[in-house]
Specification:
It contains 14 helices and twelve strands. The protein is an alpha/beta fold. It folds into two domains: 241 residues, Aspartate Aminotransferase, domain 2 (3-Layer(aba) Sandwich), CATH 3.40.640.10; 132 residues, Aspartate Aminotransferase, domain 1, CATH 3.90.1150. Strands 1-7-6-5-4-2-3 form a seven-stranded mixed β-sheet, with helices on both faces. It has a five-stranded mixed β-sheet with strand order 8-9-12-11-10. Helix 1 packs antiparallel against helix 2 and helix 2 packs parallel to helix 9.
């Protein structure tokens, strides 16, 4: 089956009891058992839930993985992946990573004996140089949040796979419609399903997709043991979202290209970060690795005051955290998504006080252009 067909049908078989074409929301905490040890495959809702299982099968099919486990948030999913490690293990991380991921690694997991090194993922030499005998995982985002740096997944895999080091890719920004890391050599893919997979800004969740049987058993075990599971209602909301993922992503991409070009040509904008622009230094890698460029754009206004004028001047775009919804969201990474990253590090990465990030929605692009144009006119 091709992608759109999988998105609609994988895991979404009609309900065997009623024939309902929408997977029911099994809002139950437990299941009746016929006798001791005899049940219908479901015992307790933390361990198994039919709605969650349908979602997991759907996302595994979309990413081309054998296994998927859904969690209560993207951060819960990332945390679950790190339980594959033990005290003393070393992890290499792409340095421009989501602030919440940095916070988990730096403020929480370091206390339990894990060690993290942050490298500029644009140069493969940096990964090789950071390797240690105790390195057990490389964790990357591509494109990175928020300055849209790309990392060559296939090239990193060529470094990690011979050394038996797991390569984990956060694929939230691209979704499996535009990028499938497992096909490029990654071992594990993580998502915040809150974003493009759900697509409607009404659910929180996360997912881990992988092929390795041993790691899959370990992730399934921690999902049950720690219990950070996605709810039946949220599972259903994401399942609803993935049915339209293909058509939404095409529109995000179409609008994103138009708005990125508009920003690049606007004299009030200092710099635009968008892989779809030919001026992006990794544009050719984007063309090889992804089948589209998506709707995530960051741009430099030059100062905190300029950023404030834009963010408070928009009327159609919504100022708020998160991304990937049908509506356009605009944010200030330095004080919102990346506030947990030290200021000196933010500035080194290009996350300045003047940087604005926009998650381009699927509205009529002419309306978005008009809104951004009038907001940018408020910059001196």
């Amino acid at each position: 089956m091709k992608f759109s067909t999988k998105a609609i049908h994988a895991g979404n078989e009609p309900d065997p009891t009623t024939g309902a074409v929408s997977v029911p929301i099994y809002q139950t905490s437990t299941y009746a058992q016929e006798s001791i040890g005899k049940h219908k495959g479901f015992e307790y809702a933390r361990t198994q839930n039919p709605t969650r299982l349908a979602l997991e099968r759907n996302l595994a099919a979309l990413e081309g993985g054998a296994h998927c486990y859904a969690f209560a948030s993207g951060m819960a999913a990332i945390n679950a992946v790190t339980t594959l490690l033990k005290a003393g293990d070393h992890v290499i991380v792409s340095d421009n990573t989501y602030g919440g991921t940095f916070r988990l690694f730096d403020k929480v997991l370091k206390k339990f004996g894990l060690e993290f090194s942050y490298v500029d993922g644009r140069d493969m030499f940096n990964f090789e140089e950071a390797l240690r005998p105790e390195t057990r995982m490389v964790f990357i985002e591509t494109p990175t949040n928020p300055v849209m740096t790309l990392i060559d997944i296939r090239a990193v895999s060529a470094i990690t796979r011979p050394r038996n080091v797991r390569l984990v890719v956060d694929n939230t920004f691209m979704s499996p419609y535009f990028q499938r890391p497992l096909e490029l050599g990654a071992d594990i893919v993580v998502h915040s399903t809150t974003k493009y997979l759900n697509g409607h800004s009404d659910s929180i969740g996360g997912a881990v997709i992988l092929n390795d049987e041993e790691d899959a058993r370990a992730i399934q075990f921690i999902q049950n043991a720690a219990g950070a599971i996605i709810s039946p209602m949220d599972s259903w909301l994401v399942l609803r979202g993935t049915k339209t993922l293909a058509v939404r992503m095409r529109q995000h991409d179409e609008n994103g290209r138009v708005i990125a070009q508009f920003l690049a040509e606007n004299p009030r904008v200092k710099k635009v970060y968008y892989p779809g622009l030919k001026s992006h230094p990794q544009h050719e890698l984007a063309r090889r690795q992804m089948t589209g460029f998506g709707g995530m754009i960051s741009f430099e206004t030059g100062s905190l005051e300029n950023a404030r004028r834009v963010l408070e001047g928009v009327r159609l775009c919504t100022l708020g955290e998160s991304l990937g919804g049908v509506e356009t969201l605009i944010s200030h990474p330095a004080t919102m998504t990346h506030a947990s990253v030290p200021q000196s590090e933010r500035e080194r990465l290009g996350i300045t006080d003047g940087l604005v990030r926009i998650s381009v929605g699927i509205e009529d692009v002419e309306d978005l252009l008009a809104d951004l144009d009038q907001a940018l006119e408020q910059i001196d």
